[in-house]
Amino acid sequence: MKMVREVISTADAPKAIGxxxxxxATADLVFCSGQIPMNPETGExxxxxxxxxxxxxxxxxxxxxxxxxxxxxxxVKVTVFLNNMxxxxxxxxxxxxxxxxxxxxxxxxxxxxxxxxxxxxxxxTATR
Length: 128
Prior knowledge:
single chain; CATH 3.30.1330.40; six-stranded mixed β-sheet; alpha+beta
């Protein structure tokens, strides 16, 4: 049986800044590329607190998931990349507002550097 592979693209999330897709969907799963805190309407990075950056990343992920016929409530795994683990508590506080019931599995790691020197990047996998 051949697996269907669908490229997901939406104007409601930032365009890919490299050779990758915003998301890839199969019959059952949606794999979202990491989202940085970039406003899709302006193309500008959201600067400010990690709370504001987290909110934009999750808004972008939500848009990609919805374009694939999924939603945040169907996310099964999230990886959060932080430029500074000292931002974990503020990120977690905002994150908890987006995943209020039966939150997905998650990893949060500190990294040396992220694209465009942002403070956070978030990727997710969901069911369709």
